Amino acid sequence: MNYDETTIATTYDTARGHTRGVMRQWLDLVAEQMPFAPQLIVDVGCGTGRFSEPLADRFAAKVIGIEPSQRMLAVALTKPANGRVEFRLAPAESCPGRPQRRPRLHVDDTPPPAG
Question: Rounded to two decimals, what is the model's pTM?
Fold first, then answer.
């Protein structure tokens, strides 16, 4: 989907938002799966950055949010910054570092199909 051809960016956080409690629970689950203390987290497809700051805060890590949509990224850039988050307009293929040599944890917040 090309988010730049829609107005989804303006309502994305509201439509897919989490309460503080749910966000804390989600971060706890991520932390349980993290076999190391990350210094760098690459938030691929960061969208509006709704997970970028919480990840940076929870893990005291630098977060680089990679997002191909200008509209989604524009929303991310309006959020308060903690100094550890950087956003880049780019496709996922441009991720920093050499992913094949770094430990990875893939997190997808998409709910499973019903049924």
Answer: 0.79
